[in-house]
Write a sequence for this structure.
C-alpha cells in the first residue's frame, strides 16, 4: 500500500511547486498601478491593462511601451518550475524564428531577485529579455500558476493565452504568432 502512495505524494509535491493555483486577481480597472511611470513617454503609446515596467535581469528596465507597435510573447515563469523549463526552449525557438519578422519576446520571472532569471537563462540557453519581480504583474494578467504564455497584439491587447505548457501547444502558438504578425 505504501508503494502506491509514494508516486501520488511525489506528484502532489511537484504540482504544488509550480502549478499552484493562486486566487485570480480582481478584474483590472484601467491601468496597472503596480509599475512606475514611464520616464520618457512613448508618443502615442496608450497604456492598456497589459502594461508593465519591471527590472531587467541584465540591468535597467523592461518597459512594454518600448515595444509599441510590435506583437509580444510574454511568458511568466519561475526558475525551478519543471514546466517552465520545458517551455523555455520552445519560446526561445519562437524568439529566434520570428524576431526578425517583428515579434518581441519577454520572460517575466516571479522571483524577487535577478539571480533566478539569470540562472534560468544560463541553464536553458534563453537569450530573450528577462524581467523579474513579476508577481504583481502576473496577478494583473490573472495567471493562476506558471508557466503562463500570452500573445499580445501590436496594440498590446491579449490575443491568446496558454496555461501551463505541453508540446501539443506548439502548433497553436506558431499559428497564433503568424496570424498576429500577418495583421501587422
Amino acid at each position: 500500500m505504501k508503494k502506491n502512495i509514494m508516486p501520488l505524494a511525489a506528484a502532489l509535491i511537484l504540482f504544488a511547486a509550480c502549478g499552484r493555483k493562486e486566487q485570480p486577481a480582481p478584474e483590472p480597472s484601467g491601468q496597472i498601478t503596480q509599475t512606475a511611470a514611464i520616464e520618457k513617454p512613448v508618443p502615442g503609446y496608450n497604456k492598456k491593462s497589459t502594461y508593465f515596467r519591471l527590472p531587467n535581469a541584465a540591468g535597467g528596465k523592461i518597459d512594454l511601451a518600448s515595444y509599441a507597435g510590435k506583437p509580444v510573447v510574454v511568458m511568466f515563469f519561475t526558475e525551478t518550475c519543471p514546466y517552465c523549463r520545458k517551455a523555455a526552449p520552445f519560446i526561445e525557438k519562437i524568439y529566434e524564428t520570428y524576431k526578425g519578422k517583428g515579434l518581441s519576446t519577454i520572460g517575466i520571472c516571479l522571483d524577487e531577485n535577478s539571480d533566478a532569471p539569470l540562472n534560468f537563462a544560463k541553464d536553458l540557453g534563453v537569450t530573450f529579455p528577462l524581467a523579474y519581480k513579476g508577481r504583481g504583474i502576473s496577478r494583473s494578467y490573472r495567471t493562476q500558476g506558471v508557466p503562463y504564455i500570452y500573445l499580445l497584439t501590436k496594440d498590446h491587447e491579449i490575443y491568446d493565452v496558454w496555461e501551463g505548457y505541453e508540446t501539443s501547444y506548439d502548433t497553436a502558438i506558431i499559428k497564433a504568432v503568424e496570424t498576429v504578425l500577418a495583421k501587422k
User: Anything to note?
Assistant: Residues 45 and 65 are 7 Å apart (CA to CA).
